[in-house]
Write a structure and sequence with these properties.
Elements: H1 7-20, H2 31-35, H3 37-48, H4 53-72, H5 82-94, H6 114-133, E1 146-147, E2 156-157, H7 172-183, H8 187-198, H9 203-207, E3 214-215, E4 220-223, E5 234-237, H10 240-253, H11 278-292, H12 301-312, H13 317-324, H14 329-335, H15 340-366
Antiparallel strand pairs: 1-2, 3-4, 4-5
Helix pairs in contact: 1-3, 3-4, 4-6, 7-11, 8-10, 8-12, 13-14
Length: about 375
């Protein structure tokens, strides 16, 4: 098997990577992973390979969950088989996740979301692939699924069926409520609000914007490859509204620091002048959605809405894919969600044109 010649050399290599990696795992958030020599080594290697901080965080939390489950079952994680993995997945499917709590103290919904379970099982599957690569086990109990009759060999049924739901898109009244809430928000949050929609930016892309990423003369910003989800650089325009707010914010920013670098800075007493985190931005959007009473609105809603609006405006699917930075058009299709009202209008318009054409043909035939 591939891997290090000795456990000592592997440890030295991982320590070297940990000391030079730009992304340092937050070991306090997953202590079981930190204490597990192999799981810790793998996360250090993944960080050293340049995976994003969000991915490292997600992998760490997922493996922490699995290691905790194995500890409860008194099973060494390295020796876990398909039965153990199945029990863990069943636990994920039925684990209480209280959205609202009734008088008995139980939640109104149980079981983690399908997307969360998919994320966790992916991280654990990679854990076992690493064990195989290191020669510590011979098979992966998570696997990629098995052949499903009626599908091609590429269409394999996964460990947990993948649910594909349409993204939620706010209606006009809900969007207006969010805009009204944003008018009283701090200047920084108003700029970020506009840019998130203007450029269909993901949370990390928005928070990672540096001043050098802006071409102020042509109102174009660059999403750097290292912060983009698909690791593909792209350049997108932004509106005059965002440009005016951005100009005002940059003047305010100079009261925090004159250093170049991150565009959006924290103004808290604890981290004043430091780059804003994705968690701060998520909290800001959550507070706006609470004020606006639009509970489903998240940091990713801006992106969904922008891409959908481009489709409504008649943009070609390939143009939208380039704008969004998607490698696959299938991904773009998942993001674009035309409402039933939009589709009804298109159908009605088509029927009106067809009806007029039929009447014209009748007029020619019998007139």
């Amino acid at each position: 098997m591939g891997g290090c010649a000795s456990d000592q050399s592997c440890t030295l290599t991982s320590m070297s990577i940990e000391s030079t990696s730009g992304v340092q795992p937050r070991w306090d958030r997953f202590p079981l992973v930190a204490a597990h020599k192999i799981a810790r080594r793998q996360l250090i290697v993944e960080a050293g390979l340049g995976l994003s901080p969000n991915t490292i965080e997600a992998y760490g939390r997922a493996r922490e969950d699995f290691l905790g489950f194995c500890a409860g079952q008194k099973i060494e994680p390295v020796k876990a088989n398909r039965e153990v993995v199945a029990l863990w997945v069943r636990d994920l499917l039925h684990r209480p996740t209280a959205i609202t709590v009734d008088k008995t103290g139980s939640g109104s919904r149980s079981g983690l979301s399908n997307s969360t379970i998919q994320q966790k099982t992916t991280a654990v599957r990679l854990f076992f692939e690493y064990l195989i690569d290191q020669g510590l086990c011979t098979s992966n109990p998570v696997g990629y699924g098995r052949y499903a009759p009626g599908r091609s060999m590429l269409g394999r049924r996964g460990l947990v069926p993948r649910h594909r739901k349409l993204p939620w898109i706010p209606g006009d009244e809900e969007w207006q409520a969010m805009v009204r809430a944003a008018t009283s928000a701090p200047l920084r949050n108003r700029v970020m609000f506009c840019l998130a929609y203007d450029a269909a930016l993901r949370r990390e892309e928005l928070c990672s914007l540096a001043i050098d990423d802006f071409d102020f003369a042509h109102r174009i910003l660059t999403v750097r490859a290292e912060v983009a989800k698909g690791r593909r650089q792209r350049m997108v325009p932004y509106s005059e509204t965002s440009a005016l707010l951005l100009t005002a914010y940059l003047k305010h920013r100079r009261t925090l620091t004159i250093r170049p670098g991150a565009t959006f800075l924290s103004e808290s007493r604890r981290n004043r002048g430091e780059p804003i985190t994705i968690w701060t931005w998520s909290k800001a959007v959550e507070e706006l959605s609470t004020v606006a009473e639009v509970a489903n609105f998240t940091t990713h809603t801006f992106r969904h809405l922008c891409l959908t609006d481009l489709a409504r405006s008649g943009w070609d699917i390939h143009e939208i894919a380039v704008f969004a930075g998607h490698r696959s058009i299938e991904t773009t299709k998942d993001y674009i969600h035309l409402s039933a009202r939009d589709l009804a209008a298109k159908v009605q318009k088509g029927m009106d044109q067809l009806h007029a054409w039929r009447l014209k043909m009748l007029g020619r035939a019998i007139g």
